[in-house]
């Protein structure tokens, strides 16, 4: 298992549009991909799960990946996560 921390900097939090982009990247990897907020853990390949996590501005999340491409999955998702936030803050 590989983990990477990210912080939500989008003032609107992770709503439908950024959630869809996050899921769109997560599904491209063979590894299992999860987002964790406190004790809550959701499948990052599920848009409903990502939205239900309720990640608002300044929330710290942990990306957890497990599988053959786990490091690449976590690193790519973190990059996409940041680009989604920057786009929405522009």
From TrEMBL:
<keyword id="KW-0598">Phosphotransferase system</keyword>
<dbReference type="GO" id="GO:0005737">
    <property type="term" value="C:cytoplasm"/>
</dbReference>
<dbReference type="Pfam" id="PF00381">
    <property type="entry name" value="PTS-HPr"/>
</dbReference>
<dbReference type="InterPro" id="IPR035895">
    <property type="entry name" value="HPr-like_sf"/>
</dbReference>
<dbReference type="InterPro" id="IPR001020">
    <property type="entry name" value="PTS_HPr_His_P_site"/>
</dbReference>
<keyword id="KW-0963">Cytoplasm</keyword>
<dbReference type="InterPro" id="IPR000032">
    <property type="entry name" value="HPr-like"/>
</dbReference>
<dbReference type="InterPro" id="IPR050399">
    <property type="entry name" value="HPr"/>
</dbReference>
<dbReference type="GO" id="GO:0009401">
    <property type="term" value="P:phosphoenolpyruvate-dependent sugar phosphotransferase system"/>
</dbReference>
<protein>
    <recommendedName>
        <fullName>HPr domain-containing protein</fullName>
    </recommendedName>
</protein>
<feature type="domain" description="HPr">
    <location>
        <begin position="1"/>
        <end position="87"/>
    </location>
</feature>
């Amino acid at each position: 298992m590989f983990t990477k921390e990210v912080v939500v900097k989008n003032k609107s939090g992770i709503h439908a549009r950024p959630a869809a982009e996050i899921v769109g990247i997560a599904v491209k990897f063979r590894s299992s991909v999860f987002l964790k907020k406190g004790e809550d853990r959701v499948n990052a390949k599920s848009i409903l799960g990502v939205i239900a996590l309720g990640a608002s501005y300044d929330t710290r999340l942990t990306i957890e990946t497990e599988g053959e491409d786990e490091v690449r999955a976590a690193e790519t998702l973190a990059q996409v996560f940041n680009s989604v936030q920057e786009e929405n803050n522009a």
